[in-house]
Input
Amino acid sequence: MHIWVDADACPLAVKEILYRAAERMEVPLTLVANKLLGVPRSSWIRSVQVSRGFDVADNEIARRLAPGDLVITADVPLAADVIGRGGHALNPRGELYTQDNIRERLQTRDFLEKLRETGVQTGGPAPFDQGDRKRFADSLDKFLAKEKPGSPIKALGDDGI
Output
């Protein structure tokens, strides 16, 4: 299993949780972004810079994805593509996208996009907070425990960072 991160808009707190998880679980972690990212020195962690452009990072993740890999993304169409390719997708607020919920998420996204096109102000997501961070850490712990039983994953989000 490999963890891929749609890193351009990924909160720093989520990246820090992922850095610790990659080290503890000895799972490769790659952050993909259209800007240069500084990542900790580690044999498990790397970053890939792609050119600027619409969906360039998403397309790079989809190109490299293998069945069973985990992708961290808030991009619902990318999550749908990942699931369609046999991967797993988790958003930075801790929601695991699945075959059962991805269609509804796509429909909601499309509906809101159509509203915005007509000039309706739909607002954006709430600011990322400690509750989101905890939900993400808990969801990641649960996912990794299922995928890598017996690995040391306790309390990834409980260290106050």
Q: What stands out?
A: The radius of gyration is 16 Å. Confidence is low (pLDDT under 50) at residues 152-161. The helical segments are 12-25, 56-64, 76-84, 102-117, 130-147.
